[in-house]
Amino acid sequence: MSGETRVEFQDLGARLIRRHTENGWVALRDDLLDRALRSFRPSAPVRGRHGAGDFFVAADALVALLRRSVDAEPQAAASDITCETDGSDVLVSVTIRLVAAYGAHLVTLADAVRTRALVELQEVLGVLAPEIARIHTHVHVEDVHRDPRML
């Protein structure tokens, strides 16, 4: 998006926001910010290593692979996954927020999700994949659903 187009977009957004009540602003704000974050935020690089040398994977691609792996767990679905890297773009932590099935043993489920995530990371990142002792893999259960179709 050119600088001129971006300014026009911002002006239009400001004019439209001023027309709305507080409730309208909240509805607009969530949608606008969500779109802006998806549109203008480049994906950070995550360093991996195999026999031919170092390579980089886009964090968004890594998150998509982790989501697919976590979602394969029958009693869980990932609602959000974030990755954190150090100054050399080496992965240092992964945070996975889950929706769990009602009745699932949460500690066992968190361990299964953590294991799935680490296996996926080792496949994708090779020798730079975080070891269990080195990576901070946080699993948070943020919601529980009775309906398995919600997972």
Task: Summarize the structure in words.
With 151 residues, the chain is an alpha+beta fold. The protein has a 3-stranded mixed beta sheet with strand order 3-4-5, covered by helices on one side. It contains 4 helices and 5 strands, in the order H-H-E-E-H-E-E-H-E. It is flat and about 50 Å long. Helix 3 packs across helix 4.
Characterize this entry briefly.
With 151 residues, this protein is an alpha+beta fold. The chain contains 4 helices and 5 strands; from the N terminus they run ααββαββαβ.
Which secondary structure elements does this structure contain, and how are they paired or packed?
Layout: H1 3-19, H2 22-40, E1 45-50, E2 53-58, H3 59-71, E3 76-85, E4 91-101, H4 106-125, E5 136-145
Parallel strand pairs: 4-5
Antiparallel strand pairs: 1-2, 3-4
How helix-rich are the residues, as a percent range? 40-55%
Q: What is the first-to-last residue Cα distance?
A: 36 Å
Radius of gyration: 19 Å
Beta-strand percent range: 25-35%
Biggest sheet, open or closed, and with what strands and sense? 3 strands, mixed
Oligomer: single chain
Structural class: alpha+beta
Mean pLDDT: 77
The side-by-side strand order for the widest beta sheet comes to 3-4-5
Question: Uncertain spans, ≥5 residues at pLDDT below 50?
Answer: none
How many helices? The count is 4
Tally of DSSP β-strands: 5
Sum up the overall morphology in one term: flat
Give helix and strand order, one letter per element, not per position. Answer: HHEEHEEHE
